[in-house]
Specification:
Elements: E1 2-7, H1 11-23, E2 29-32, H2 80-93, E3 100-101, E4 106-111, E5 124-128, E6 134-142, E7 164-167, H3 174-181, E8 187-191, H4 195-206, E9 210-214, E10 224-226, E11 229-230, E12 233-234, H5 242-246, H6 259-265, H7 271-289, H8 298-302, H9 311-314, E13 319-321, H10 327-333, E14 337-340, E15 344-348, E16 352-355, E17 360-362, E18 365-368, H11 381-384, H12 397-417, E19 439-440, E20 444-445, E21 456-458, H13 467-482, H14 491-508, H15 522-533, H16 543-548, H17 559-566
Helix pairs in contact: 1-13, 12-14, 13-15
Length: about 575
């Protein structure tokens, strides 16, 4: 039996395992992953030509292992192979390799009945897919993140379709590469408007294909793509400055933002203050969108973000960095790529792709860049709510009524506290309280049965623009929580906060109505986690540097050791 099993061997799983072992070096810990190599999104089987990370060198690494400069491009961009190699180096340095089981897909996680007085009894049992093997463990860390289970839209006629249909997740598979390089594959359709769709279109064009790019008219529209640099700096670095968070209304109190600023600019703010906030984001959006010259062509106009200059603040679709800006030359020329703002209604014989306006396209290959499932199949539907996950199953009437009332109260509090969020330009679709994630601090179930208290935690279940910084903080918080070294409020208080943060996300980020988002607010969120742990989150020399400086993962070097020292524990990493 294991003390803890970490599910997922990507960014989240590796740092969660390393952090837990640093605090509890004698633990029987196992990492499992369904892929044949470590890396998660950056595993070998998910890498394909021209794939480049959005973050520049120095931002896509953990605090205790710098990425080698000689592995990246001269302009600081990081090739996908360099990301995979870095994660392999990280796993090797911290002795995780021998604890990882690859090609191990967990089909089901089941809670075991409590055995009173037996602390050695397993709390969970994991079933390995394709076998009768079961893995018993006292605790689990779910580190699969929000991009592990691809969403494939239902396309009538797919059985009769003579071409090939695949999800963008499969672009790195060897057989997909062979198919794309096959000269008989001449025409492709890419379905979707996210960053992965831009990458798929670029890949296919560089392989000599003709591409029809189909993006639904409904929904959040195409991603707003930012340039590689702005004002002489990589644009991704903007996200790592507290200056941006000064103009973003959020519920995470932080000492780096004076209370008077929050009160004047966001909390019960005046109309003038709200105009200043919106004006700041519109100016920034203009600077980020200007290089693409949307009006230069019909294709370009069809890629204009749904809310134009308000798209950055409200984020109707996920944001992305244009890692290959030369793609815009192909888009505007229209010689080998045509963009349609329609939906695919059916596939047909003779490789036909039928759009909802009646237009028929011909495709040897259809790539669905359609995102990821919001539901998680590790747990049975009837067990998902109890572990804090969304579910198609409803709460019992009493719990459902409680959550509905909490949601209404929380939403009212948010718009009273941050009036600007009442102006969200797109109406929110009706939602069930069961569609929310009910995770305190986005890590721990809002309430766990007393008999299984502190036996499950999540890492990577909040989408942000500061992944490594956030994952390290979440991993330390999860470790402290699971080992009983962290005081947490009573269930009623945790539940109220979960309702409040969920209400804020729905109001603040339109794309956050599907999964938790905190794109520009991750530093205040990290501050909150470290304050919970009694660790100083402000790593700069003075307040000016704190607000205006660039935060990088290396700023948090040694944070686990600091936490251990505060508890009087000697850190074996520093012995």
């Amino acid at each position: 039996m294991y003390d803890v099993i970490v599910i997922g061997a990507g960014w989240c799983g590796l740092v969660a395992a390393k952090t837990y072992l640093q605090a509890c070096p004698d633990s029987r810990l196992l990492l499992v992953d369904g892929d044949s190599s470590i890396g998660g999104t950056w595993s070998k089987e998910r890498l394909y030509p021209h794939l480049v990370a959005e973050a520049h060198h120095g931002l896509f690494e953990f605090s205790d292992l710098p990425m080698r400069r000689d592995t990246v491009l001269p302009d600081g961009r990081i090739p996908s192979a360099a990301v995979h190699d870095y994660l392999t180096e990280y796993a090797t340095k911290f002795d995780l390799i021998d604890r990882i089981r690859l090609n191990t897909w967990i089909e089901n996680v089941r809670r075991e009945p409590a055995v009173i007085g037996d602390n050695e009894a397993p709390r969970w049992r994991l079933t390995v897919a394709g076998s009768c093997e079961q893995l018993p463990t006292k605790k689990i860390i779910i580190a699969t993140g929000l991009t592990s289970e691809p969403y494939m839209p239902f396309l009538p006629g797919r059985q009769e379709f003579e071409g090939e249909v695949l999800h963008s997740k499969a672009l790195g598979h060897p057989q997909t590469g062979d198919r794309i390089s096959d000269p008989s594959v001449r025409h492709a359709v890419v379905y979707g408007g996210s960053k992965s769709a831009f990458d798929a279109v670029y890949l296919l064009l560089r392989a000599g294909k003709t591409v029809d790019w189909v993006i639904r008219e409904q929904g959040g529209g195409p991603s707003m793509m930012t340039p590689l640099s702005i004002l002489g700096q990589p644009s991704f670095r903007l996200n790592n400055s507290r200056l941006l968070t000064l103009f973003s209304p959020h519920p995470f109190a932080t000492a780096a933002q004076p209370s008077w600023w929050q009160r004047v600019m966001h909390r019960r703010s005046s109309r003038l203050a709200q105009l200043a906030v919106i004006g700041f984001w519109r100016i920034l959006a203009y600077l980020l969108q200007r290089p693409w010259k949307y009006n230069q062509s019909a294709n370009g106009r069809r890629l204009r973000p749904l809310l134009a200059l308000d798209s950055l603040f409200w984020s109707p679709a996920t944001l992305g960095v244009m890692t290959h800006p030369e793609l815009w030359d192909d888009i505007h020329s229209g010689e080998r790529v045509t963009i349609y703002r329609q939906a695919i209604t059916a596939l047909g014989k003779d490789k036909r792709v039928i759009l909802d306006n009646g237009v028929e396209l011909s495709a040897d290959l259809v790539v669905c860049a359609t995102g990821w499932h919001a539901r998680h199949t590790l747990f049975k539907p009837e067990e998902q709510l109890a572990v804090g996950l969304p579910s198609a199953v409803s709460f019992d009437p009493k719990s459902q009524s409680e959550w509905i009332n909490l949601q209404r109260k929380a939403d009212q509090e948010i718009i009273e506290d941050m009036p600007i969020l009442q102006q969200s330009p797109l109406p929110s679709a009706p939602f069930r309280c069961e569609d929310d994630y009910h995770l305190y601090r986005f890590i721990a179930p809002s309430r766990e049965p007393p008999s299984h208290e502190r036996s499950i935690a999540y890492v990577g279940f909040l989408r942000t623009a500061g992944a490594p910084i956030v994952y390290e903080a979440q991993s330390l918080w999860a470790t402290a929580y699971l080992t009983g070294a962290l005081d947490v409020p009573e269930p009623s208080e945790r539940i109220s906060e979960v309702a409040r943060t969920n209400a804020w996300i729905r109001r603040r980020y339109i794309c956050g109505r599907k999964v938790p988002f905190a794109l520009f607010d991750f530093l205040p969120y990290v501050d909150m986690l470290y304050r919970d742990l009694g660790v100083n989150p402000h790593r700069k020399a003075n307040m000016v540097a704190e607000i205006c400086g660039l935060y990088q993962p290396r700023d948090f070097q040694g944070v686990v050791s600091e936490w251990l020292a505060s508890r009087g524990v000697k850190d074996i990493e520093n012995v």
